[in-house]
Amino acid sequence: MKLIRRIAGILLLAMLYALPATALEISAPASVRPFDDIVIRVQSGQAGKLTIQAFHGGMKMKSPVPETEIPAGTSEFPWDALNFGGEPVPPGPVTLKGILKLEDGSTAEAEFTANAVMPRTAVVACLPSARMFCADGRHVLKIECALSAAGTCRLFLAPKDDPENILWRTTMECDGREPVAFSWNGRVGGKCCPPGEYVFTATTFPREMYTQTAEVTVVSEMEPLEIGLTGGLIPEDLSDDEAVWKALTAPVVVGNGPEGKGLYISDKVDGRYVKGWSVSCRTVGVDVLELCDDGWVKIGAWVQQGGYYREGYVKKDMLQVIRPNTSYGAVLDKKAQTMTVYADGHPIGTMAVSTGYTDGENRRADTHSGVYLLGTRMKDFRREGFVYRYPIRIDGPNLIHSVGYQEHNRVKDYSEQIATLGQNVSHGCVRMDIRGEINAWWVWTHMGKDCKIIITPGT
Least crowded by CB within 10 Å, which of 22, 49, 183, 259? Predict the structure, then answer.
């Protein structure tokens, strides 16, 4: 055995000496599955600084190996075949391009093309609809969980300081195309859960190596919210992080009806209330301007049919107040065509977006300003030859979602709509970038139901 090892070592040294000094070779499995433990092997004739880039078609993805020092010989790097924000690389050909910077300033390059297949089943999102939940037996907490592929999702609840003590568990089948929504009524063993810090853990079955967790504070009671004057919804100074976060976490007055149903607002004509226009219930915030003595409330809102701001009246019992999900919030600046995500009072990243096209006369496609709570997550959809991913409803037919792609030879081609980011080109939806750590996938897997988005006026 020692002789065999000695011969193998001699052969390896011979191969290294035979390798040209500037040569670079890359290899990986011919088929790669996201979330697997993949190894990229690099054979180099010299030491240097190595970067390995990844491409799907002509689109650059997250680099499997950022610039790092390597010695001459063989180096190995782990890769999970995940893109920006942890998104699985798309099925189809993925090209790995290695660039080695040598000490003399020259470079050596090599490429290897693998075929990415459907990802292994993994939990990619565990999103409670609130960070603080009142377990009084009358409320229900929604927890959305998403899988990368079809499978069984398990959800557990345990105290934060005693994670092995499982207090509540449930399972649900997921098709991998849209999230499943679990409901917890706040009870453990038939009794209301005691106040404290708890953790939800989502896993797949039977493989439990891919998990996501979310922390929730349980309280026994919360101060009731009453409808009152809101004093404006959109902060004037977007550079003031404190003011922006205060606006993103402030309670929201919305229509008291199911998501997407119209809240009809009346005009006051000769002392009479005449029904005139509407906004969507549950996800569209309204500005409370006046509480009238006769049970009516004067409100202001941006109307989807035309994209303009109007004021009118609605019965007080047709409104409700919702505490937003304060895990994250976002501000979409229509002038800059960017969306900035905030967490715990500070911006954590900005991405380019495209909003609705309007020519000044026809404003029906405008992405109108206002305050929104994230609603239902949906599966991909196709429109006018493009496929849009990661859609979340914010207002009736208007959604936030990725830029669209067209598929050519098993390659998802986003180039046409990526080129229009920063412009008013959509049908009213918000198109989000797919590149960078804060992107459409990140929003889909991090910003849960009832997170607030503020869309500022475009002019």
Answer: 183
Please state, in angstroms and as integers, the Cα–Cα distance from residue 76 to each residue in 40, 44, 86, 263, following that order.
6, 11, 21, 59
- Number of structural domains, the chain? 3
**Tens-binned pLDDT, residue by residue, of the chain (459 aa):** 444 444 444 444 444 444 455 589 999 999 999 999 999 999 999 999 999 999 998 899 999 999 999 999 999 999 999 999 999 999 999 999 999 999 998 999 999 999 999 999 999 999 999 999 999 988 999 999 999 999 999 999 999 999 999 999 999 999 999 999 999 999 999 999 999 999 999 999 877 778 999 999 999 999 999 999 998 889 889 899 999 999 999 999 999 999 989 999 999 887 788 988 889 999 999 999 999 999 999 999 987 666 678 999 999 999 999 999 999 999 999 999 999 999 999 999 999 999 998 776 666 678 888 999 999 999 999 999 999 999 999 987 789 999 999 998 888 999 999 999 999 999 889 999 999 999 999 999 999 999 999 999 876
CB-based contact 44:26 (threshold 8 Å): no
Structural domain boundaries enclosing 58: 2-116
| Alpha helices per DSSP H over 120-251 | 241-249
State the Cα–Cα distance between residues 214 and 131, nearest whole angstrom. Answer: 9
Domain boundary among the residues 219, 235, 264 is at: 219
